[in-house]
Design goal:
Elements (H helix, E strand, L loop, with lengths): L6 H6 L6 E5 L3 H9 L4 E4 L3 H4 L11 H12 L6 E5 L9 H15 L3 E3 L7 H9 L4 E6 L5 H4 L10 H15 L3 E5 L3 H10 L4 E4 L7 E5 H4 L17 H18 L23
Helix pairs in contact: 2-4, 4-5, 5-6, 8-9
């Protein structure tokens, strides 16, 4: 990985190497992703579901995106950091979109923003790129449209696939440096990927995409109740955490923690420091 990833570098990986992407929301996880050499981190508005417990991403506000993006940036990752633009931060007008994207970049130091959909948002993309803000697009299932879609169905089937392809080309022409494809048929993911000069990042879009993205909490198995078909769990840390907490609880109740090796002698200097609480 170069000293600091850029949008141009990510774009240059098209056709040369596959791009692993993870979605994370905090300092600790960003440090771990950095240690693993992940080249692109997405601070997704999915933090509304994963971290804040909202039912949809529609409730996520700009202040929450900036708060979590700042936490990720404090890890000083060499990875490119892309921040989701939340609901209504870009749909109202191109001018408002540029201002919102500029606020994200200025207040967090992140490298790029991501927005959902095409159509009337194309002018906003053009204006942001003209202002010097790298933009990642997002087509297929767009979670901010959940109220209109009535859920999270597969997108791009039948004739809708042609429209999605045209939207992908339009986003590329507007200046997007990459494009997320979510929950579309694998053949369509391959078709869009082949038609574009910018890399595609798939999530439930098949193996034909240029890269893949998963939420870090999902691939680590932190939520035993969330296991959609497109997620591969590379660990089962949820059960490990529960077991550790149960053991801790038992030891506190029984008096076996803290043991003598965890205690400071009466004469211990204060310079030993305190724990987190």
């Amino acid at each position: 990985m170069p000293p600091r990833m850029t949008a141009l570098h990510i774009r240059s990986l098209k056709g040369r190497e596959r791009i692993p992407v993870v979605t994370c929301y905090d300092y600790c996880m960003a440090r771990l992703a950095e240690a693993a050499g992940i080249p692109l981190l997405l601070v997704g508005d999915s933090l509304g579901n994963v971290i804040l417990g909202y039912e949809t991403t529609v409730r996520v506000r700009m202040r929450e995106m900036i708060h979590h993006a700042n936490a990720v940036m404090r890890a000083r990752p060499r990875a490119l950091v892309v921040v989701d633009m939340p609901f209504l931060s870009f749909q109202v007008s191109p001018g408002r979109a540029v201002h919102a994207a500029g606020s994200i970049v200025q207040e967090t130091g992140a490298d790029a923003v991501k927005l959902e959909g095409a159509g009337r948002n194309l002018e906003a993309v053009r204006r942001m790129v003209e202002a010097g803000i790298p933009v990642m697009g997002h087509l297929g299932l767009t979670p901010q449209s959940v109220l209109q879609l009535g859920g999270f169905p597969v997108q791009g089937r039948g004739a809708a696939g042609e429209a999605l392809l045209q939207d992908a080309r339009a986003l590329q022409e507007a200046g997007c440096f990459s494009l997320v494809l979510e929950k579309i048929p694998a053949p369509l993911g391959q078709r869009v990927t082949s038609a574009l000069e910018i890399p595609t990042i798939g999530i439930g879009a098949g193996s034909g995409c240029d890269g893949q993205v998963l939420v870090l909490n999902d691939l680590l198995g932190l939520d035993p109740d969330f296991n959609p078909r497109f997620v591969k769990r590379y660990a089962e840390l949820g059960s490990t955490v529960v077991e550790a907490l149960e053991r801790y609880s038992r030891e506190v109740r029984s008096g076996t923690f803290p043991a003598s090796e965890h205690e400071f002698p009466d004469a211990a200097p204060d310079s030993a420091g305190g724990g987190n609480s």
